[in-house]
Amino acid sequence: MTFSNLEYQSKGKKTRKEIFLEKMEKLVPWKKWCEIIQPYYYERGNGRPPIDLEVMLRMYMISNWYDLSDESCEEECISNVVFRNFVGNHIPDETTLGKFRNLLEEHKIAKKIFDEQIKTLAKEGILYKQGTIIDATIIDAPNSLKNKSGKANPEFGIGVKGTKKYFGMKCHIGMDAKSGIVHSVAVSPANEADITHANACLHGSETVVRADAGYVGLEKRPEICEKFADKNGEMKPIIRVQKCPKGKRYKYTDGYIHEKRTIKFAISKKNKTVSGKKDRANERNKARKRWKVEHAFCVLKHMFRFRKTRLSTLAKNESKLFMMFTLVNIHKLAT
Question: What would the mean pLDDT of 52-57 be, rounded to a whole number?
Fold first, then answer.
């Protein structure tokens, strides 16, 4: 106990950071995550003993929750009493934090933690896996040309949203339609179309797939048909939102769509093709059922402040996004 801690305890009001970290202290399964990381963590040898794994994990969580670099995370943990109480009195330096982050990226531990969370939620009955909402968002990246090559980072691309152009990457997610839990994450350059990575956001046991107009024609793509094929290799019946008459079949290049309905693709139409009151009412109904996916992006970009990446490769960003959406799911369960 230090004099600063004694002085801090005499205050009359809890700050927002303190309230948030108290919630995360209870909801984050620290022991489980430490067990996943422990086989890859440094072992005690003849040199300096490694820093306690939970201390490193707590500091890494703070850097993700508040979008801090390694250097600024160290400084904040030293100067901020709330962060210091959460991490511990012994604060690791920025180099140690960077090595820990590289360790997680090298062994893809963030994905293992994310998969473990999804399995746990499915066992507890929170994740239903009956319907999936898919969507993508652009995350900016530095577009500076002041480097050895004199060119922009080739890992990223230029994407267009509306009339604006963005340089960076796209984050694709698949969300459980009922619980609002993100169960799939994929990363690509910003210049790639949303529909090309839709397959990575579906788990194959859906009865309903919802998406915006960027995924028009999703049910005709061969990789989607393969994912929803049965054990004998035959196509499961796939239909569009509109009803088909009894006893009729609609033939496409990749197979048949039967009258029997098992999988429903509720894809929004493009604005140019919407005409009449009925079409507008149908599109409003689709949007009312698809709004949950925007909440995950809202937490990611506005609460956790991950609007622009400072990492240089897609592999590093993929590891970070797996961890970020693990934390987004925890925040969803907390609220």
Answer: 94
